[in-house]
């Protein structure tokens, strides 16, 4: 088996409260593995230890005990960060830089050559749909554009792992959809994604696997489909079904040992509806 | 407080201990080069107030001194001599290395305030006016002596003091002494070495000495044979009864 | 685009290119905050100062001009150093840009060094601009005084007067004096950086920095008393020792007041003084890094 993208072993983080004897346990004995190529959703209410876990993975916070690795390299080492791109929650990049300058700055931090930065920058700006805004200052970007430039900077050195903290917080539905599509696009390219969110619907749409944290403890973990499917129920969705067919089906159910739990017209999500009426007309 | 902060403070304490002797030594060297000579003490604080004192302490004493100096100038226009002296005392404490301040303070006291005191229309008794005038001479002298104490490496204040002795105290012996000390500076204007002998010529008992010195200068050539030098040479020749055949310099006959 | 092996070259322990990127970005950040408006204030202040001294002799006028200019340089560079440094880390933390930077393969040492160099660069630009304005105005005033003298002073005294005017304006000790002003402001910036790694708010950092600045100028008195005292109590002695050991001696970097009035500084003394300043800056930075390197962000 290949090296996991993220490996967390028996992680515990205790914060001392300054000038007090009490301590706060943010994460307790957490063990977790994110395999390469997965989109992993880390869920949990505010204060559940999601952010702390993420910060420890990124080496921003030192664990009290336990160990975290990125592709086999200890998170405490600077080198481990060569393979990871990070987009924090509600980031403010330097407002006075343009989109292209922002990517240039982060590219330099990754030690990329000038030519490489130019190429990557062009490629990423196109990917995130900011080609036309490349020379505008970030001060004039919308929330959604900021998140997208944030994704581009996270990807500048072609990392194999992307860590995203609430990537769609505060972004309108269309922007949110774009970001979601980008994440799926990255997944297609084989990039591992760790997504921290409390927008469950979104997680449900894109994650392969989820972990649920509560009070610093991992309470559930597994393949998304397994976790939420209802084992003894089946859903059939029909299109243009004549009433006779429906009557037949009901009759057949009545004869079987099964039970009809509900019958209704599926509704599209409000989001879908919103996007249909506001978005550009599809050809 | 994390453990690191405690260690950091310990490192700073050790750094403090290491630098302490070096800083003490550097301070001595600075003082030897006439830095940090200002006397920032309680009496100064009374004169310039809490704010001014704080500013002076935090590295802006030159600026505070300038403000007081401008203030003193305003007082001068109102001829408030006593108040001027208070400002001068503060200014010279703040900037003891500023020759200009000592020099001007002494000038205002010795030459301006003294004349005003002598001509005081409110004081009918001449004896008291003379006494007041002399007190201002002394104040001028005080500034210059303190100024010299703080600036022994600059000729200007010696020259000022010589002038004060010459013009105001009429003490030609002291004037000669201070002109001589002025002339000893390599960068002092050349006329001071003549001035010392003009004054010495008027110092009782030193006429012979003055005569010989002036004669020596005379022999150096045309450059030294200035009207005043010639005048004093003539006067001393008469005073010392130099025989006619030994007279080097023959004064021109008075115009008819 | 492929998700092949990472394209970054092998990680370097220390990369001047990364430090330069952070430093130049920090300088840009500070410049964008329009900190250079104070230059306008500086120019107004030193031009304005001449209105108060028009009735004075040229020596007095030039002295006031120099005192005001160098005093303003001291206070502006100090304020700039303290304020800019105090907001550096809190602003990056608040905007989470710190996270995006440190999530890249950037060692914390390089981040802190880059930030600090950005401030030093800013101070350098600021003091250079102020020195430029100051020298131009001083030169203009000198030329004005020379022209006036040529018009008004009788021929036999003219040469001496012109020499006096020249002597009263430019003085070769001004430059080392300005270098020391720069070092002092850099020291205060390094100290502020150190304090900000301890502190949780910029206000606290700024207040502490100002207090240290004020005590720093009388630190020498505490040191002298500590080294000399035999009669004081143990408690007093301990207090004096703490002040002398913890607080920097800022008076040793306050030479310009005396230089303006003509005090000369020898090369040896200048080098010693500057070395002391540089040592402080280095130590404060390293101790600041020591605390920052383990800080929970």
Please tell me about this protein's structure.
- The complex is a heterotrimer of chains A (283), B (256) and C (297).
- In chain A, the strands form two sheets. In chain A, strands 6-7-8-3-9-10 form a six-stranded mixed β-sheet, sandwiched between helices. In chain A, strands 2-1-4-5 form a four-stranded antiparallel β-sheet, covered by helices on one side.
- In chain A, helix 2 (99-109) packs across helix 3 and helix 2 (99-109) packs parallel to helix 4 (143-154).
- Chain A has helices at residues 50-57, 99-109, 114-127, 143-154, 173-188, 200-206, 224-228, 243-255, 270-278, and strands at 6-16, 23-34, 39-43, 65-70, 73-74, 84-87, 161-165, 192-197, 209-214, 217-223.
- By secondary structure, chain A is an alpha/beta fold.
- Chain A has nine helices and ten strands.
- The longest helix of chain A is centred in the middle third of the chain and has 16 residues, at 173-188.
- Chain A has two domains: 6-96 and 138-228, Rossmann fold (3-Layer(aba) Sandwich), CATH 3.40.50.300; 243-278, no CATH class.
- Chain B folds into two domains: 38-154, no CATH class; 171-256.
- The longest helix of chain B has 36 residues, at 42-77.
- Chain B is flat, with a radius of gyration of 26 Å.
- Chain C has one domain (16-217, 254-292).
- Chain C is globular and about 75 Å long.
- Chains in contact: A-C, B-C.
- Chains B and C meet through helix 1, helix 2 and helix 4 of B and helix 3, helix 7, helix 9, helix 10 and helix 11 of C.
